[in-house]
Every structure is written in C-alpha cells, then in structure tokens.
Design brief:
The chain is α+β, with helices and mostly antiparallel strands. It contains four helices and seven strands. The chain has a seven-stranded mixed sheet with strand order 1-2-3-4-5-7-6, sandwiched between helices. The model has no long low-confidence stretch (mean pLDDT 94).
C-alpha cells in the first residue's frame, strides 16, 4: 500500500534526503551543492510502500508561482504509481490561490507529467547536465 505524508520530523527528512542522494547524486551524478538548495523553505513529502521509504518530492513558493521539485523514486519502486501518488498529494497541499503551479521536468519524465495535466512551455534547457523542460499545471 502506498502512503504519502508531509514530512514532519527530522527522521522523515533524513529518509527523503537518503532517497534524493541515491537517485540524483549517485544515479544521475547531480552535484551535491545544488541538490540541497532551498531545503528550509520547501514543504517535503515522503512516500512509503508497506512502511518502506520509496519516494520523495517537495514544493516551494517562488517569485514565479508554486514550484514542484525533487521528485525521486528509488529504482526498485519505479513504475508502481508512487510518482503519481506523490504528485497528487502535493497538488492537494499547494495553496489554491491562482498562482501558477510549475516544475522543471527531466525530458525522460515529460510524458509522466503530461498524463497528469501538465503542459510544456518554451525551449528545453539543461540543469545539472540533464535536459529539462518547464511545465505548467493546467488548472482550467
């Protein structure tokens, strides 16, 4: 059973960081110095499967709206709807005040976000040596 909760203590945050380190730093070779930016102002979530940590994501307020970011699912839990559960939990949590909801999707994840009503905007770009596209949540 997939369970997604907003992180409320250091032990949960440590689990989220462990997942992000495994996925982004080890698997994708992202520089650690950029992986840990904006931690304090973000609202973090942890997904578990039968009480085993499986994935994480967060959102934060920016000058451009609400940015969803750091979606990471451990390899052994991929393609099991954990990303969808995380995304739905975050979309339920963000303020519904008319601000744009957006993210920078890795190109390999673009179709996942399209299935969840996100639309790409602008040219592709590179972050941490990975190709991305800016996407907005379609609230219409």
């Amino acid at each position: 059973m997939i369970d997604v909760k907003r992180i409320e203590n250091q032990a949960q945050l440590d689990e989220a960081h462990r997942i992000r380190k495994e996925v982004f730093v080890k698997e994708q070779n992202c520089p650690e110095d950029i992986e840990w930016e904006f931690e304090e102002e973000s609202r973090h979530f942890l997904a578990t499967v039968n009480d085993i940590s499986a994935g994480t994501a967060r959102w934060r307020e920016t000058e451009n709206g609400i940015k969803l970011e750091r979606f990471a699912v451990l390899k052994e839990f991929r393609n099991k709807n954990i990303g969808s559960a995380l995304l739905k939990a975050i979309l339920n949590d963000v303020p519904k005040d008319g601000r744009k909801i957006y993210l920078h999707a890795q190109i390999t994840a673009k179709d996942f976000y399209v299935k969840h009503d996100f639309k790409s905007s602008g040219e592709n770009f590179w972050e941490a040596d990975i190709e991305h596209v800016k996407m907005y949540f379609n609230t219409e």
